[in-house]
Structure formats: structure tokens, C-alpha cells
Design a protein that fits this description.
Layout: H1 2-33, H2 36-52, E1 108-110, E2 123-128, H3 134-142, E3 155-163, H4 170-179, E4 182-188, H5 194-208, E5 214-219, E6 223-224, H6 226-233, E7 244-249, E8 277-286, H7 287-296, H8 306-317, H9 339-342, E9 347-348, H10 353-366
Parallel strand pairs: 2-3, 2-5, 3-4
Antiparallel strand pairs: 1-4, 5-8, 6-9, 7-8
Length: about 375
């Protein structure tokens, strides 16, 4: 027993020494063989746990929250702030990078702001043109753009231009002084800026002619049967109705071929299908829609295809594209000329300046012979 007791007493300090040696070896092994990433992770975890005891919980809204979910939050948890409805992302409608900015912040070089001061016109023509198309403008003034063409109905004709050179040219200023039917802003007049030109027209109507009953956007290479448009179509539509019609383009998909004229890059419009729109060759709409389209354009990303872009604005507003009474009324292509056929349609495309004069003369002569 004495031997055993002596063994226990002598071995206890040895055990302490062994334990201390083991701890030291373990520490050396940790610093020599543990990867740096693991050390960092361990330290960060300790700091997170320590800090969480000092910082109270601050809730955030769910990234998957739908517009209706903001009403489902418990009112006793005020830290949960749902995303405001006007900032929610509509996946089908691209947004401007800077919300609520005027997409056409350009200066009116020629505003023609007095055009509607004396009367609220029944119809406003917004005609896309360029500086070099003087002959086309002159022939339109003589034919379907004649503001006195339809008795009893006030018509306003406006040609819309950007600038192809630095500022408005002297020739354009003289033409404007003579006819008072040109509006122009200082953006570059290119095909890819056609949307800016159309939005300029919408802005003009909203600013200077908000009481117009109807508006028609069309191009300078078009034939328009103004009499049929007014007497057979627009005269039957209530001025209070939100009406939009033309040649309907429904369920059209973006063209991803970069060599195509109507190419749409995926990053500009990632959707598989466009909303319904009308061919940009000619569409007609209620005058009040001009203001609505211009205002909603502040929050719809500008696309270079103006007819598609207007369709996106209509979708945002909640206005549907109406089909015309007959499919053959609006034509984005050239209809083979026949006086009686042209007497009963509204638009035909790719009409040269000389053809317009010839066609118009024959139509007027045959007007009462066609049934």
C-alpha cells in the first residue's frame, strides 16, 4: 500500500505536465496546419455572435413580395417596410434607369404653341418627316393634310422634325413661318430616335392642344383618306372613350437578329412577346390618350421601335388596342391603286410624292361613282 501511495503522489505532477504538454502541442498544430480560410471563418463567426447581442433585429421586406402582400404585414411590426407600389418591377415592361424623368427633355426650336388657341380641333395629324422632305410636305398640304378638307370638322396638321444639322435650318424656319405647321426639337433626327419624335408630338398635344378630340400619328410616305377617317370612323366614336386603333399587331415576338431593321436586343426588351400595338405607319387615338401616354413614358424605358413603345405605354395605362371595323382600313403596305378601293380605306404605305397627287386627283373625280 505504501508503494502504491508513493506512486500516486509522484505521478500526479507528471500527469499535470503531460496535460500541459498536450495543450501546447495542440495549439502549435492549429497554427501550423489549420488553413487561413478556416481561421478567418472562425473569427468572423465569433464576431457575428458577439455583435448580434448588441444590435437589435431590423426586418426587411421579402424580395418575393407581391403588390398585394404589403397589406398582409402585421401592424405591430413597424420595422418591416414593404416596397412602395410605384417602385415595384413589372417584369414585362422595361423601366427607365432614372424613374420619373422626362424622356424628351429637349428644347422646342419651333413650338407652334398657338395652333389650338382658337378652337379644340376634332383631329390632329402628327406626321413624321425630315428636313429634306419638303416636296412630300407640300403635297400632303395639297391633299389629305388640307386642314379645310372636311366641312364641319376642325383639323390641325403638324409635321414633326428633329435636327439633321446643328439647330433648325433657315429653310425650315421660313417654311414654318409660311405654313405654321412644323414642330421641332433639338434631338438628332435619326431612325433610332423616332420614338423621341413621336413623344415630342404627344408632349405637344398634352401641352398646347389637350382638348383635341382625336390624334393620328402617321408618316410622310403615306396616303390617308381623311374624309373616310373622320366621317365613317371617328364620327362614330364617343369623345369620352379611350380609343386606340390602326393596323393591329398582336402576339408579335422581338426579332433577335442584329442585321434586321427591327432588331430588338435582349437587354432592352427581355420579354418573349410584345404587348399589342399598332403599326407605326398610321394609328388613331383619343386626344386624352396623348397626355396619358406622355405621362406614363416617364416610367417606361424608351425603345427605338416607336410603335412597340407606344404599345408598352398603352399596356401600362391599361388601354387595349381596338381592331378597326374592317381589317382593310389601315394598311402598312402599298395597296394597288384603284380609285374606288382607295375611297374606302384609310391608309396605304410607300406612296411617292408624285403618286400622291395623281392618286388624289383620280379619287376626287371618282368619289361619287364608287359604291
Amino acid at each position: 500500500m505504501a508503494h502504491e501511495k508513493t506512486f500516486l503522489i509522484c505521478s500526479w505532477p507528471s500527469r499535470k505536465l503531460c496535460l500541459l504538454t498536450a495543450v501546447i502541442c495542440l495549439g502549435i498544430s492549429y497554427f501550423l496546419f489549420t488553413p487561413q480560410e478556416a481561421k478567418t471563418s472562425i473569427i468572423a463567426t465569433k464576431q457575428l455572435i458577439f455583435n448580434s447581442e448588441k444590435i437589435p433585429f431590423q426586418g426587411t421586406s421579402s424580395p418575393y413580395e407581391t403588390p398585394g402582400e404589403k397589406h398582409l404585414h402585421n401592424i405591430t411590426t413597424p420595422r418591416l417596410q414593404p416596397t412602395p407600389s410605384h417602385l415595384k418591377v413589372n417584369l414585362t415592361t422595361p423601366k427607365n434607369k432614372e424613374m420619373h424623368k422626362d424622356p424628351v427633355p429637349y428644347t422646342f426650336l419651333i413650338p407652334e404653341e398657338d395652333k389650338c388657341k382658337k378652337t379644340a380641333p376634332f383631329l390632329v395629324f402628327l406626321i413624321c418627316t425630315t428636313e429634306s422632305e419638303k416636296l412630300r410636305r407640300d403635297n400632303i398640304r395639297k391633299t389629305w393634310g388640307n386642314e379645310s378638307l372636311v366641312p364641319g370638322f376642325s383639323v390641325v396638321r403638324l409635321f414633326m422634325l428633329g435636327v439633321q444639322k446643328q439647330g433648325s435650318t433657315e429653310a425650315i424656319r421660313k417654311e414654318s413661318m409660311m405654313y405654321r405647321d412644323i414642330i421641332q426639337q433639338d434631338f438628332q433626327d435619326t431612325y433610332h430616335n423616332l420614338t423621341l419624335k413621336v413623344l415630342m408630338g404627344m408632349k405637344w398635344v398634352a401641352s398646347y392642344c389637350p382638348n383635341a378630340h382625336f390624334v393620328m400619328k402617321t408618316d410622310s410616305d403615306m396616303f390617308v383618306n381623311t374624309e373616310y377617317l373622320i366621317q365613317k370612323l371617328l364620327a362614330t366614336i364617343s369623345a369620352s372613350e379611350l380609343y386606340f386603333t390602326g393596323f393591329p399587331m398582336r402576339k408579335y415576338s422581338p426579332i433577335r437578329n442584329s442585321k434586321n431593321k427591327w432588331y430588338m436586343p435582349f437587354d432592352m426588351y427581355p420579354g418573349k412577346v410584345y404587348p399589342d400595338f399598332c403599326s407605326g405607319t398610321g394609328y388613331v387615338f383619343s386626344g386624352s390618350l396623348a397626355t396619358m401616354i406622355y405621362r406614363v413614358s416617364f416610367s417606361v424605358k424608351v425603345l427605338h421601335l416607336e410603335d412597340v413603345y407606344v404599345g408598352l405605354c398603352l399596356q401600362k395605362i391599361g388601354v387595349r388596342v381596338s381592331s378597326p371595323p374592317r381589317v382593310s382600313l389601315f394598311n402598312p403596305y402599298k395597296v394597288r391603286f384603284n380609285p374606288c378601293i382607295y375611297n374606302k380605306l384609310i391608309t396605304s404605305h410607300y406612296i411617292s410624292p408624285n403618286e400622291l397627287l395623281i392618286f388624289w386627283d383620280k379619287i376626287q373625280k371618282k368619289k361619287h361613282d364608287c359604291f
